[in-house]
From TrEMBL, chains A, B:
Gene3D superfamilies: NAD(P)-binding Rossmann-like Domain, Winged helix-like DNA-binding domain superfamily/Winged helix DNA-binding domain. PANTHER family: REDOX-SENSING TRANSCRIPTIONAL REPRESSOR REX (PTHR35786), REDOX-SENSING TRANSCRIPTIONAL REPRESSOR REX 1 (PTHR35786:SF1). It comes from Streptomyces monashensis. Residues 228-252 have a biased composition (Low complexity). It is found in: Cytoplasm. NAD(+) binds at G100, I101, G102, N103, L104, G105. The gene is rex. It holds the Pfam family CoA_binding. Modulates transcription in response to changes in cellular NADH/NAD(+) redox state. This is Redox-sensing transcriptional repressor Rex.
Length: 266, 266
DNA sequence: ATGTCTTTGTGAACGCGTGCACAAAGATGG
DNA sequence: CCATCTTTGTGCACGCGTTCACAAAGACAT
């Protein structure tokens, strides 16, 4: 759902469906909250409500992990927290590098949710020499030149790309070349990676556009202000030119920053 | 997939599948890039490669929109850009408010991808009185007290929440109360919203955890360092206690900031 | 020990999304 | 005007994910 490569063998890793894996962190968060309130056990119904999912789905998800849980009682919170953490690989420490320390990169560096879940920001990397040495979130920024050495020295296998779109593929290649096998990409680009490397993408602009689509539908169909161009299905040359002439004025390519990413290039 | 409410009627809005809607922005981005290079037409094969998807999938996606495209030739880039933009509702201007101007909120405010795609940051809102009036990305931050008035005055229907987790639900309620019907949530919480309100969630921590899962699998199964606790399926009381005793020391609740969000509370 | 009551775990049905493979459509050249 | 060639649009099959509904399992009271 968020891969860079065209074909992915539907990575059903070990019998645990991908959709289930994506929900485990959700359950873990809800369970952690319960744990902090010293709640000993939860029923699937309660936990599902807290996680915002269907209870049957939750039970089936857990069934892939094993038969934890006691009929008539529910699930032991602490035990389940441990099992999910272990399944997700959160019982070990994952050093992470963030490349591109603009606004977004800095926000990520300051993100508390990383450290509290087994992730550790091992290094911050930026291409701007002026940023080198400057501390962000208590960690000094290092220059891109040292990227490979940083990766290897720290045994980093997870990289976060928060650079402008133009630099993302190049950074990605260097990360992969240095041994990184999992990438979280915030740059609005499709990354090409060799097999065996996982890419997940977070695209703010896309999320907003999806919301806009539903918003437009909610607003109803009657406010069809632009009745000019082809709403039908006749792609005649005439209507095309009309559309092409009418569209750009609206919002398409109004500036040279068509694909500027979430961070300042630095 | 990213809703806050438990039950959603699988919002297949108008015959256009949700999965297709989620890919339209991807196609739009690729098409915009082609448009800037003044490429007149593309084949489904080329465009699919640029967007990182299967060409058959792309053709089927477009078939939901109508029969744009010419057999033997391909798709007219400008025409398609317009059609997709219109379908996504990007031909109109969407005023957006961002609530919670911490690191992440500031990054979002500076995000160029918004303005270039029909979105306009109408206002920045923060609960910290000290931030009021201070300009971020050229826009003065306003105080939460005026939230309702800001929403109504600007006719805002899309809100972005970048506050700490603790404040998210409250902010959400006020946004919805003021008329917002689409929310992009960056706070690590499950939001409860009434029917008719769309919520999409972006959770950095969850993405990383999913990567960690696959990373752990790639590393193989042999490094099973913790051979102590239940790998089998016998949830006996004894093994539970052992697990519960061993786990918390690892990484679960090591601090009181279990769910700190992506921004400083301000 | 037995019965009742709660909650899990899962078999089975259904619907959505994906990808193949091909016929229809149109462009292009002779 | 006809033949050929490219590329679209889609019927079809398959697999994954979701949900229902219920039997099995265990807690708890008597």
């Amino acid at each position: 759902m968020a891969t860079g490569r065209t074909h992915r063998p539907a990575t059903r890793s070990r019998g645990i469906p991908e959709a289930t894996v994506a929900r485990l962190p959700l359950y873990l968060r809800a369970l952690t909250a319960l744990s902090e309130r010293s709640v000993p056990t939860v029923s699937s119904e309660e936990l599902a409500a807290a996680a915002g999912v269907n209870s049957a789905k939750l039970r089936k998800d857990f069934s892939y992990l094993g038969s934890y849980g006691t009929r008539g009682v529910g699930y032991d919170v602490e035990y389940l927290v441990y099992q999910i953490s272990r399944e997700l690989g959160l019982t070990q420490d994952w050093p992470v590098v963030i490349v591109g320390i603009g606004n977004l990169g800095a926000a990520l560096a300051n993100y508390g949710g990383f450290a509290s879940r087994g992730f550790r920001v091992a290094a911050l990397i930026d291409a701007d020499p002026a940023m080198a040495g400057k501390p962000v979130a208590g960690i000094p920024v290092q220059h891109t030149d040292d990227l490979e050495k940083i990766i290897e020295d720290n045994g980093v296998s997870i990289g976060v790309i928060a650079t402008p779109a133009g630099a993302a593929q190049q950074v990605c290649d260097r990360l992969v070349g240095a041994g990184v096998t999992s990438i979280l990409n915030f740059a609005p680009t499709v990354l090409s990676v060799p097999d065996g490397v996982d890419v997940r993408k977070v695209d703010l602009s896309i999320e907003l556009q999806i919301l806009a689509f539903h918003e437009q539908r909610k607003a109803g169909e009657e406010p069809a202000l632009e009745t000019a161009a082809g709403d039908g299905a006749q792609p005649a040359a005439a209507s095309r030119e009309a559309a092409a002439a009418a569209a750009p004025a609206a919002s398409a390519d109004q500036g040279p920053d068509g694909d500027v990413p979430a961070v300042m290039p630095a």
